[in-house]
Known about the structure:
The protein has about 400 residues and is of the alpha+beta class. The chain contains 6 helices and 24 strands. An 8-stranded antiparallel beta barrel has the order 1-2-3-4-5-6-7-8. Strands 9-10-11-12-13-14-15-16 form an 8-stranded antiparallel barrel.
Amino acid sequence: MYRSSRSLSVSGILFFLLISVIPLHASPEGTWTFRNPELGDMYLIVKSDGTGSYFLAKGMETTIKKGTWTGGDDGFDLKFDNGVSGRLVLRSEDAGEISFDFAGAHDLAQASSVMAVSRVPTGKIGSLTVDPGAVKPDEEEEEDKDSFTGFWEGELLSGEKFFMVVDANRTAGCTHSFSLTDQERVLGYWRKDGPEMYIYWSDGSFTILKRVGRRVEQTTIPAGALLEDAKGFTCRMIAVSAKDIPEAWYSEFEKDYVGRASFLVFRSRNKVRDFFKGDWYVGPDRREDSSIRLGRMSGARTERFGGVKGEWFLDQDAVVIRWKNGVTEWIRPIGRAFVVNSYNPGQPLQGRPARIQLVFPDKEEKLEKYFETKKRLMGMAAMMSGAGQ
Length: 389
């Protein structure tokens, strides 16, 4: 009797200790990582105050999507401001499953998916490809986005004046091609990076606008140059008004809504894939040693870098290519052209690229047909929008 009673007491003590140190339900608070078949690696942040957020580790879209979470014994429900919803079910303290319904937010072929999820160790959180502390949420980015918007005048070494237009809708235009192309209107889109503004131009040039004391300076690097090494052309920019811009040029700039819309416009995601599949060439001369071949599935190959293979996928308004030598590139429309941005191994995609170059499909009529279709679809969308008002 004594032994039996003692055995029960020990068992009771052990059970008490177990339930004291091991929670009955794992806590969701922390940073989690999972992989979506189309978007790639993603991160989820769950906070103790009932808020949460997610973001993509790589790709064009680097803004954090905010939301809230609720839950209990059998799982945790997630809702985000962009319409995305999900559910996190933990099988242990550090692993489980997550289901996401993207509801068209990322234009995926498969809107819903269930993925394995694991907790990111505390020591590795600071080394994520996209640092949550360094990426501004949408509303914070809006607060200072107009610091360089307006009309600007600069002067070339020849003494000739040139003008830049920086619109609040993230489009831009320039009266001069720093890459010496024959584009009559160099169009672009811009993004902020701390105190600087980056402008990506349709001629492959790259401009940095920044304030130096009370002055505003621009540095523009032509297409194909290594941005880290190239000095580019730097000059002071003077704020002017719309009436100072060459009238004919500005009139055409304002009317060119198709060219200024530096994003993809297609009827479906399959149409986007069909458009990009095939051969592309870096540079207008279409040399074989500058080719990029995007396969029917997800395979890619280029004759550059000594010949290397990789994989490609769609990411918002671009094609992202991950080469096996560690280089990542994306191809996207800017103005009435397409450019390829190259990022060295380990270089974050939300920063400035290593190099920007113009890229061309194997057949010129492919671009002509695309912009004709884009104009028609944007016109239809505008008519439908007007009819709904």
